[in-house]
């Protein structure tokens, strides 16, 4: 299970000026600094940083989504050249904007290498 990280120790500054500042929280009477990282426990006393909170977004049903792992999976497909995964709190699902790998697509469609994508797909708006 993923967890949001908070740190405390001699290397984190804490002074009266920190009171009420963004990033500081108090839990059980102890002050912590929220790092903005997402981590997972991998063993006793071992934490692995796996992402940043600012990279996530929440869908309308309250599900948090990390787009980077989805993009990595989509980029493994030989027909995908570029991909962008996006979502918002107003949406129930994510959107993936995909740029095809023209060379691989033309090979798959058994068309000459210099064929324009608009012609290959029969859609002028794909130019």
UniProtKB/TrEMBL annotation:
Keywords: ATP-binding, Nucleotide-binding. The keyword ATP-binding applies. Residues 1-20 are annotated as: Disordered. GO terms for cellular component: endoplasmic reticulum; membrane. Transmembrane segments: none annotated. GO terms for molecular function: ATP binding; long-chain fatty acid-CoA ligase activity. This is AMP-dependent synthetase/ligase domain-containing protein. It comes from Haptolina brevifila. The lineage of its organism: Eukaryota, Haptista, Haptophyta, Prymnesiophyceae, Prymnesiales.
